[in-house]
């Protein structure tokens, strides 16, 4: 076969796979939005869910999902940042760092249902915390840490070595060089890692069914004292998230409008993730530009 | 296999900025450099030349302790009567006194202004008027001020390669060091940018002692006062540049500078 022909075939295959992927994505997102959006109403978004009657909403589920996402990110980001920096900047090639990397890879391949059962046994039962937001958030941290650590490590590694040499040669300490010079360069990639992991957390159901629970306590949104049992901020209350709600409604619900509720929830889930994505990117760009004095992202 | 059978290291009879005695550098068990005894004259440009892998960059990086944690350095480096190859030395303070410019221009991903002020702020200078003055002074010293004075808040990476390298030199001299170490600073630059950097160095030697590693023979011969020829991990000959390039005392040096090497 002549080079021109092979080239053409390769190009067609590549374009074909891209087209196939776009079609699949459009079909999936389109299906979710088309089935979910018609039933969408202000009432659906702002009222509590029903167990038996039609007309329930998903107000608490939306709040719970966002709250667990924020808590999980707050817990896992500092840990992942520390380990990522250690692996990228300080770790020498030794049996210890190899072991650490292996453990991280192993953790990242654990099925979320296994992580959920582990969280159930340890936090819910052993520590007697019960089904709660905090059990869910800590369990999701286990689930989230490996990939987040990996993406932060990669983000730091992608910054050229010369940047570190420049800082150190000016008498700046290694730590300050890492935080003041390397970190701003790594920020866009770190942010991508955070966004990807946020999507995983927001859409996670299996790990939460056994830890944050499938039921909702009655919450009063006027009560912002995190230690009060009716406060939405109370981390010791059980909390059903959007993804868990979708699972529950589809498996064991006797709601007359179960299909409508689950389609609507799925649409909201996708829209919130999209909004979070765009918002985080915008924020990251603003910070990056401010730190590096560039006009646009590299 | 070549062997170094004879050496000639000139004794300097003028003010000395830095000298090394029996400096040796090891990567693990491997000896990368040995028997480094040399004196660097103050406010002069000394070029370090020699084939790739001869140990000249390794030697240079030892002088401001950039080899810490990478290689083991033995022997003495005397600076103001103090042996700086010593664990008790404050390396952060030392690197303020002995600055370094690298092979590839490496401005920070920050504005031109911040490239210069970042380390100054770290070392405790806070006053805006002082910082602004430092920015202007050091950019003028490398003849970059007129080219960038209207875009000080732009990212340093948006400059051309030659401008970036001069920015890196400006960043180093803003610290007001005694000694400036340059590791092949023009190897990635075009001839015009190279010339500008060389002109800059000629200006800077009024105030600073400059030690420059270079692969470029013309650069060594036209812009340095002294030249050290390195080979096989040792200093083979050190003398005035005019002498090295016209009448070297060692055969190996003559072979190298005349291009009959190997």
Automatic annotation (TrEMBL), chain A:
The keyword Cell membrane appears for this protein: yes
Transmembrane segments: 12-34, 66-87, 99-123, 129-148
GO term, biological process aspect, one: phosphate ion transmembrane transport
Topology within the bilayer: Multi-pass membrane protein
GO molecular function: phosphate transmembrane transporter activity
Coiled-coil residue spans: none
GO-annotated cellular components: plasma membrane
Domain of life: Bacteria
Subcellular location: Cell membrane
Predominant location category: membrane
Domain ABC transmembrane type-1: 62-280
Keywords for this protein: Cell membrane, Membrane, Transmembrane, Transmembrane helix, Transport
PANTHER family documented for this protein: ABC TRANSPORTER PERMEASE PROTEIN YQGI-RELATED, PHOSPHATE TRANSPORT SYSTEM PERMEASE PROTEIN PSTA-RELATED
Similarity comment: Belongs to the binding-protein-dependent transport system permease family. CysTW subfamily.
Name listed for the protein in its UniProt record: Phosphate transport system permease protein PstA
Source taxonomy: Bacteria, Bacillati, Bacillota, Bacilli, Lactobacillales
TrEMBL record, chain B:
Organism superkingdom: Bacteria
Any one of the GO BP annotations: phosphate ion transmembrane transport
One Gene Ontology term, aspect cellular component: membrane
Keyword annotations from UniProtKB, A to Z: ATP-binding, Cell membrane, Membrane, Nucleotide-binding, Phosphate transport, Translocase, Transport
InterPro entries associated with the record: AAA+_ATPase, ABC_transporter-like_ATP-bd, ABC_transporter-like_CS, P-loop_NTPase, PstB-like
Limits of the ABC transporter domain: 18-257
GO molecular function, one term: ATP binding
Descriptive protein name: Phosphate ABC superfamily ATP binding cassette transporter, ABC protein
